[in-house]
Structure formats: structure tokens, C-alpha cells
Amino acid sequence: MTSAVTSTVTVQFFRPLLQAVEAAAGSPQLLYDATGLAADDFAESEQLLPFPALVAAWQAAIRICREPLLPLRLGQRSHPGDFGILGMLAQSSSTLGEALELGVRYERLVNQSFGSTLLLLDDHVANRLELPPLPMDTLRPMVEFDFAALVSFGKFLMRTPDERMSPLRVSFRHQPAGPVR
């Protein structure tokens, strides 16, 4: 007998959304309602939660905060410490390349729903997300957050908060949800 595997992510993926909704609405309750989860479900940072709840959380957070670019904004403000064990591994790495490789290698500890592949190209690296077969509009928030968080992560690890470390090129398979500078 074969059992269906449920795609999951850890609570860490929800934390920025909970904080944004609490700041906008005064309480994270609207996010709990949208996901069908309760405050107790978020008590342990390594707790695995269903991926469909994360999809619902992003849609609800964007609506509640009235911010179509919320994923990019939250990703820009992220810190390696926000990523639990992966952030700790990255911060203990001797190079940015090592940090990225460790992140991709151990990503499954916190995320069984989508993955990353690093592509080493000449003097730079590309990150390709491998996502579940869902409509792009549904996945857009996670793609944009992942991208912005990766850039923020790299700037932190390289200790270059200015423009010396920035993407060479960005390509999404979707249109932005608002004006991006």
C-alpha cells in the first residue's frame, strides 16, 4: 500500500508573514483563520506544517497588509538567523559559495515542498527553484521572497550592505505584482 506524502515546510517559513500580519492588523489571528492553523501550531520553529497552508498564508498576508510586493519587502529584511539551522550553517561557512552549497544540500531539513539548484556559471552562480506544479500566480510570493532573501543573505554573509553585491540579472516566469525599483 502506497501512502501519499504531504509536502511540508517548517514554521520558519511562516514567521515573517505572522509578523507582517500582526503589524498590519494588530494580531496574527487573520492569518491563523486563513490557513486553518492555530497559534499552537507555530510554537516550535522546526515544526513541519503543510505546504498548502503556506500558500494560503502568503495570499492572506498580501491581502491583509495591502502590499502586493510584500514577498520582496520581507525577503529584503530577512537575516540568516531567520532560517534556523540553515542560517546557522551558512554563518559558520568560510565562503559564500560554501554557505550556498550547504543551504541547498540541507534544505530538505526545513522544506520538503520545493528545492533549489545552484548552477555555477563562469564567475557567478545562478539559483533555480524547483517548485510544485501549481499556477505561477500561486507560487509568485514564495519565488519572490526566496530571491530577495537570498540576495539579503548574501549581502549579510559578505558583509556588503551596499550595491557591490547585487544580482547580475533577474528572471522570473511571471510579471511583478507592482512597480519594482
Features:
181 residues, 7 helices, two-stranded antiparallel ribbon, mainly alpha, disordered N terminus, two-stranded antiparallel sheet
Instruction: Report the major sheet.
Output: 2 strands, antiparallel
Overall helicity: 40-55%
SS-based class: mainly alpha
Strand order of the largest sheet: 1-2
> Overall pLDDT, averaged?
81
Shape type: globular
Write up this protein:
- The chain is mainly alpha-helical and 181 residues long.
- Helices cover 45% and strands 11% of the residues.
- The protein is built from seven helices and four strands; from the N terminus they run βααβααααββα.
- The chain has helices at 15-25, 29-35, 51-65, 70-76, 84-91, 96-106, 136-158; strands spanning 8-10, 48-50, 115-121, 124-130.
- The strands form two sheets. A two-stranded antiparallel ribbon has the order 1-2. It has a two-stranded antiparallel sheet with strand order 3-4.
- Strand 3 (115-121) and strand 4 (124-130) form a beta hairpin.
- The chain is globular.
- Mean pLDDT is 81; it is low at 1-5.
